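INFO batch 0412 | record 1 of 1 | parsing
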Amino acid sequence: MKYSFSDFGQKLTGHSGILQLMDDLGRPLPEGVTPYRMGGGNPARIPEAEAMFRREMERIMAEPDGFEKLISLYDPPQGRINFIDAVAQFLSKTYGWRVGPENIAITNGSQAAFFYLFNLFSGTFTQKDGSVVRKKILFPLVPEYVGYADQGIEPDLMVSIPARCEYYDNHSFKYFIDFDLLESYLKSHNDVGAMCVSRPTNPTGNVLTDSEIHRLAALAKGFDIPLFVDNAYGLPFPDIVFIDEAAPYWDESVVLSMSLSKIGLPSMRTGIIVANQELASALSNVNAIAALATCSSGQAIAHRCIASGEIVEVAKNYVQPFYQKKSRQAIEWIHQFFAGGDFWIHRSEGAIFLWLYLRDLKITALDLYRKLKERGVVTVPGEYFFFGVEDPATSCHGHYDKCLRINYSGPEDEVRGGLKLLAEIYKENR
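INFO prediction complete | emitting tokens
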């Protein structure tokens, strides 16, 4: 029997960059091929973080009826009450934000949160007078996270502003928000439902500075739209940030998304949304329809770690130094293996990726990705990250089909071997 899917079904079951990424993450390579997995966003296993979470799980197991209560009872659609209280108290005490439990909503991973958010603020809107308008999500800087690209239920809901780019010594470069272009777009288009940025930025490791995020928040307030800030790699945890100007920011125009994934609980699927009360309540309602309840295990394990502040100390003292050391080592290897080529590395300011621009590559990044995969090297081709731009091949500095995203967080021998083989295949195709 051949099924006929709705437009919604066809959109979500078709090919997408995030599907390719996650399939590469879990699918075994052909027999006899050595794997060098540098494609997905799986975080590293950090002993100090794992020890903290193991201790909490053992505490739950030791409580009379603790394990049974954890697995046998639904939490409310908003999330686990004591976990929400701990998050709200931590944020209000640490940053002085006027945040209470009513401002927090838990989702089954931040990926699910953005699916809800994007479709709450984009697509078809029926006005009080019966007229219909169609709104979009605006990304102030592209390249951006591949997982956003196909999340709109309706087609063509994402629009992006090409980044400004500056080159520096030692084969490095950096993207910046082109605020003139962004403000011009906002003034000339009344169909923007919300703006969205990741901070640190996936895929590039770029970190928007405090002044940039404050300026974006002011623009959002001025145009009466929310600003979504995806803080999956940022402060206070997992704190995979290598620059000083990256303090968390929230006001009522900002929807801040946090996650337990990159601190070491990716399989627990726990997204934390900080928003005004109306939106937090709306997300809880969507949760009830789409998922009934939130996943309890991650919240139960992390509850006391957040309440005590231990999770922040582990992030600061172990997680952040671990990734910064890994990033510096990977960059050294790239300079060693790619010497003589026209290669450029985005400044590594955070997250778990390096963004490699190969200016003299004579094939596309997608073709290079396929050649690499045949040899066991799994990366993510850059084309997937330039969504929402009318003509990325001409408007994005020539980077559209000449970049790769590389996850540097894996075992040292695997990352080194993968980069060495990548350099060899690159040199064959210069």
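INFO post-check: The mean pLDDT is 93.
INFO record closed
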